[in-house]
Structure formats: structure tokens, C-alpha cells
Amino acid sequence: MGKLKKSKTPIADTEVPTQIKNPELVRERRRQIIDSTVKLFIEHGYHKTTTRMIAKAANFSIGSLYEYISSKEDLLYLVCKTIHEEVRDAVENALSNTDKEERFAQVIRQYFYVCDKMGDHILMMYQVTQFLPEKWQVMVLENELNITDIFINALSSLSGKDNFPTLDDKILNLVGHNISVLGQMWAFRRWHVQRNFTIEEYIKIQTDFILGLIFKQK
Amino acid sequence: MGKLKKSKTPIADTEVPTQIKNPELVRERRRQIIDSTVKLFIEHGYHKTTTRMIAKAANFSIGSLYEYISSKEDLLYLVCKTIHEEVRDAVENALSNTDKEERFAQVIRQYFYVCDKMGDHILMMYQVTQFLPEKWQVMVLENELNITDIFINALSSLSGKDNFPTLDDKILNLVGHNISVLGQMWAFRRWHVQRNFTIEEYIKIQTDFILGLIFKQK
Amino acid sequence: MGKLKKSKTPIADTEVPTQIKNPELVRERRRQIIDSTVKLFIEHGYHKTTTRMIAKAANFSIGSLYEYISSKEDLLYLVCKTIHEEVRDAVENALSNTDKEERFAQVIRQYFYVCDKMGDHILMMYQVTQFLPEKWQVMVLENELNITDIFINALSSLSGKDNFPTLDDKILNLVGHNISVLGQMWAFRRWHVQRNFTIEEYIKIQTDFILGLIFKQK
Amino acid sequence: MGKLKKSKTPIADTEVPTQIKNPELVRERRRQIIDSTVKLFIEHGYHKTTTRMIAKAANFSIGSLYEYISSKEDLLYLVCKTIHEEVRDAVENALSNTDKEERFAQVIRQYFYVCDKMGDHILMMYQVTQFLPEKWQVMVLENELNITDIFINALSSLSGKDNFPTLDDKILNLVGHNISVLGQMWAFRRWHVQRNFTIEEYIKIQTDFILGLIFKQK
DNA sequence: AATGAATGAGCGTTCATTCAT
DNA sequence: TATGAATGAACGCTCATTCAT
Predict the structure, then answer these.
(1) Which of A167, B187, C127, D165 is most exposed, with minimal Cβ within 10 Å?
(2) What is the mean pLDDT of chain A?
(3) pTM to 2 decimals?
């Protein structure tokens, strides 16, 4: 579970205001704060985690915490965004695979791996998104969609080539969402599913499943 | 969306204590309370719905409310349970269909219909389960599992018969969960999915999808 | 200084919301709250008086306090309104005097008496009005104006009659404001003025002063 | 409204301590700080103006700000003092007028002009004095009194001469305060009074008023 | 059985001031 | 001298629950 990998996109952006002038410091400190917060949110949820608990866990005074974020809700947004970036980065890395067909399977595989590794985070994020203020909520949904879009695009680039059937856009879309959801299922229904399968088995079966859907459409 | 259908199992059971002696009265009053609460939870979520709001919406004094439930958490449990019963009842009704093979498709269909009709409820329940005390949480997960079990059992009764492949128990289980999750997806990702498909289209494609998985295993 | 006299207009009106249903109780409890608050505001000012101090002084729990008012600002408004009513009532009582000319002097006299008796309250109100939310601020200024209007109307009814000169409306208005301000001066500059004069002397001299202005305009 | 005119008395005096050795620098920097603070206090009041806002507006770091003042309350005192000096200077300038009788009218006129020009400052100062620590509060009241004393002295030098009646000291005093208060009224009740009169008209009428009081005492 | 007034622990947030660099 | 990150006491307010009537 540990600390989140450093993401490509900066955390110290302009979306969430801070009193601190040194942006490097903001980046670093926010990383600490977010890491601590993620753990607490996973353990206790959003409401039962107080700002004081967060400050303490991140070794900040309550006053200092509020120098780096401007509300608990802002922090919530940063948490969600960071997790999404983590997921997206992992999946996008899989895209470097040159063989197109293999690339698609790779993307699914990487995504499922991330869902396995970050099960707690993903679960937590779903429980917590509802408490975002509307404006952030839209952005988080968009981030979610961006990940689904990776699947859709990977599929799209295969559609009609080699042995792949030409897929309707709507179907393409649906398959993308199915992939997203089946990945989350590994995290959400862990008690049931992870009892029966290793992640490798799960990937194999569900990938077949997904490919089945695709070839059915021929 | 209206009121939830009367469920077979009594609400005034011993799980959730009450001050009131007359069980008939408890049943009736709890129905009112739960109906109002469901609406409020859907609209405002669990935390932003105060017990005062609930009492007002259900035409109770705050004091009376607490005669029929003993805490907000108890009420939360009753709400989750009631929704699960609703879903289960609908799916079980589909089992009366005598033709076995058709029965399986019917079960899926009915389940997806329920997911369509009760999208708000299902969504809400997922956002809200996390606030249950541990003991209730287990029970709600069990209820969820009961529904999945219906799919598994329906499949199981087909396995190895007629044209159906003989399915490994593990696979059977997984397919059951896939069905559950794909039904929820219609509610969870409504903005994306319901834009592209009618519920009928969605049922057709996802059913094919599921059957594909089954026959793949031959 | 003691408790404020019971005012004609009810405190339990609809302007300031309450959670309590019994309006009689609201009236009574608000009276206690306001009395205590006035004392505290006079002694410590608005900002240094905490809601917990108010609750304690009025023998309420902090929770109960907030059943009767909905914010500290609302309470501030009630305080200002109550003081203004007190002043206005006293001045209006003086209007019952039947002799017109004498009535005018009586109004001034009564007003100055109130300024004497309620010096602390008037002083406090002036220090505190600035913290009202805009909507209340306008209403408080209006209340203030209503009192000035009493002087203006009393003068107006004399204008052009008997020995009184016919006064321009603008002048009438100005004289009214002068009266208001010279009354407040007795409270505001108490350290300097009350050292030299009894309230009776002060009334005599300033009344002459005011009448001088009036007859000057002949 | 702009910047306040340079006052004769030094700002960098010993009343308010500083960390900085160079007194010239202190004077200059305090001038900037006070100018910015006055604007902010007028716009937002004392409590809603944070020291951070002040530092920013005066182009200081928060650290530097505290090199030149030692607390927000000290700054408040400097602000009040500066405004009083401004008012006093303007009024004292009017004293240079050689003709005694005319000098009195001139003093009133100048004072009313200042009240017109510095309405915002005067208003603000009255709202803000209450937050001074006791020791400063006394000094500010004294400053206020000094201005009133100018009127009293001007009157006193006329008393019993030429056509002027010989005035009791107490009356002299009262007239001085009346003048002060009627000047402030132009600022305090601007919405009502400035709608009806130009400052010239106002000066004329109120001067007559004041003179009336004086000659009445003959 | 029904009412609703009373309770108080607990929360998110602010801001004047300090002090290491 | 100048900077700005760090501090933490203190505040207004909420709301599930109780209990006297």
C-alpha cells in the first residue's frame, strides 16, 4: 500500500490555493499530507478523519496544515486526483508496448494490476467522491472517464485491423466501461473474488471474457 | 421511483430494537420512516440528512422517531436491507419461469430491469453502506451476496445440461459476480452508458457478453 | 441599567428563525438571552463575547442557545432591535402629552432621559452595528431613523402654528437629527459632559439651543 | 481621500516600540504602513483586516511589518493618532486668521470641511477605537478632547469681548462639544444630511445654530 | 404512546505572532 | 534588515440522542 509513486503531473498546481510561496515546498509538503490523508481515509473514512488527525499524522500543526490546503474538501480533491493519476500513469505506461494487439491485452493487464495493488485506494475513492463540492466532483468523474478512454482508444486503434472485427463506436465505449468496472470489481468484491482466484487467473478469464464480447460482434 | 413494494420479510424483526410493543404498529410506522429516509438519503446523502429532517418528512416528532428506531445507524441498516429485499424479490420472481435456459436469461433481464428502475436506490446504498457499524456491514454484504447467489444458482442448475458446458464452481461464481457488477454499472455509470443504449439494448449486449464467457469455457 | 423594559413588539417574530415551536417560550427565553447578551456586549464588546459566554450567562447550554437563535449575528440584531424599541417606546410615550408646544419639549426631554438611562446600551449599539450583516444593518439604520422621525413629526405639527415659524422641510429634518445627536452626545461624551451638568441642566440648555435654531429661521 | 498629509508630530516616537534602529527609516516605513492600513480599515473594518492583508497592501513581508510595529493594536493606535493629528492640524491652521471673531467662524468652518473631506476616516476611527487596549484608549480620547479644546479656547478668547456675552466655563465647554458633535454628524449621518444640504449650507446653518446658543446666554 | 426542549462533545477553520534562516 | 513558514489557542456552530412531561 505504502506511499504513492511520484506522479508526472505536479500537485502544487493552481487549482488548490496555498499560503506558501515556495512551490517546491508546497509540492513536497502536500505529498506528505496526501500520503497521510490517504491512509487515514482508508482506515476511517472521510468524516471520521478529522483535520487534526491529518495534521498529526503528517507531522504538521493544524495551522501549518491550513497553510498548504485551504479546506478539508480541497484536500479530498487532491487525494482523489492523486489516486487517479497513479492509476492513469500505470495504464499509460502499458501503452508503450509496440505490438498493437498485445498492447491491448497489456493495457488491461496493467490496469488490473493497479486495481489489485491499489484496491484500498480505489475503494476509498469511491466512498469519498460523494463529499466533494460539485465543481470538483465533475473533475473527478472526468478523471475516471479519462482512464476508461485509454481502453476505448486502445481498442479503437485495433478495430477493423488484422483479425479484429470493426466495432461500432457505442460497442467500443461499452467494452471500455466493462473493462473499468471489471477491474474495480477485483477491488470491490475482493472478499469473494480474491478467495477463488489469483490476480493472474482473474486477468486471464476476464480478458477472455472481454475479447469474447469483441469477437461476438463480428 | 415512488414507494418501495412491500417486502415478504418483516421489518419489525428483532434485529433492530424498538420501544413499542405492538409489532403491527412498528411494521407500519417503520415503513413510513424508511420510505421518507430513502428519499432523503438519495437527495442529500447520509450525513447531510439529519434525524430532524427524517422525522419531519415522515410526520413524526423527533421523540417518536426514536421510539421506532434506536439510532440513525439502525435506520441506515433498515434502509439498506429494504432495498436489498426489493431487488432480491424482483429477481426471484423471475425464477418462476419454468424453462430453465430461458429462466437464466430472464433472471438477468429482471435484475437489469431492477437496476434500471432502482438506480437511485442502488447508488445511494453503495454510498451509504460504509457508515454502518461493522456488524450491520457484514449483513449488508451478505444480502448483496444473496442476490449474486441467485445468478450462481440459476447457472448451476443449467451447468452440464443440454447445450450448456459444465462449469467449474469458481467460474460459476465469477460469472455471477460479473452479472451483479454489470447490472450495477447501468446505475453507476448512467451518464455514460444510458446515453448510448436503451435498457433493452444494454440487456441484449451484456447478456451475450455473459453467455460468451460461459460458452468460451466449453 | 438592569433589565430592559418589556417592549410592545414581540421578540419572537419571524425575522429570526428558531427551532422551538412554542412561541411563548421563545419570547421568554429570548428575553433572557438578550438581557444577558446586552450586559456582556456592554462589558466586553461583540467580538470578545463568545457564544459560550452568552450561553453561560443566560444559563443555557450552548446547544440550547442555538435552538433559540440561529447565529451570533442574529442575536446581535435582536439586541439592537430591542434597544431601539426601548428608546422609541419611551419617546412615543411622551407624545401623549396633549399640549402641542409642551409636547415637543416633552419629547426632547423624554429622549434625553432615555439617553441618560440607557447610555451604556446606546454606546454599545453604536460600536456593534457595524458587525451586522448588510440586511440587518439597513433595518437598524431604519430603526434609528424612526426615532429621529418622531422629533421631525412633532416639530412638523407645530410648524407655522401659534408663535412657531414656518419651517422648511430640510430645516425640520436637520433639527430632528440635531436632537438625536445631542442626545447621543450625553452618552458618548459622558466623561466630559456629565462632569459639568446634571441631566436636567443639560436638557434645559440643549432645548434652548434647539429652540434657538428654530426661531432663528423665522 | 488619498494619503494623509505629513503631520508635525513624529510617528516614530517612543510610544510604540520597534526593532529598527534608524528612526528616519521607521518614520518613512510607518507612514506607508499606516496609509495602507487606513484604507483597509475603512474598507473592511478592524477585525476583517488581517495583518497579512496589511503587509501585502504596504508591500511588506509579514515579518518586516512586525519589525516596525509590535502588534496589530499598536498599529491601530498609530492610525487613530494620525487621523486625529490630521484633523487637529487642519483646525489649528484656521487659527492663524487674525480677526478674532472671524477666527471663530473660521475654526468651525475648517473643522466642518475636514469632517467633510475625512468623513470615512472619522467614521472608521469611531468604529475602531473600542478595540484599543485601555491605555491607548485614554490617549485617543484625549486627542479627541484636544480638538474640542481648540473650539473652547477660540470661544474663550472671545468671551466677554466686543459683542460677545461673557460665557460661563461650563457653557463654553458644552458649546465646544456641540461643535465637535455637529461636525461628526455630517460624517455619521451622511446618508440623511448630505442628501439635503451642501457642506456650505450645512456650515452656515449649524454655525448660526451655535452662535444662537452663545447669544442666548447673554 | 407521543412530544419537543435540552444537551454538549466535537468539528473545521482563522489569524496574530514568532523565529530560524 | 528582511523573509515567510510555522504555530496553536480560540471561535462559531451542528446534531444525534435523551428524558421530563
Answers:
(1) D165
(2) 89
(3) 0.91
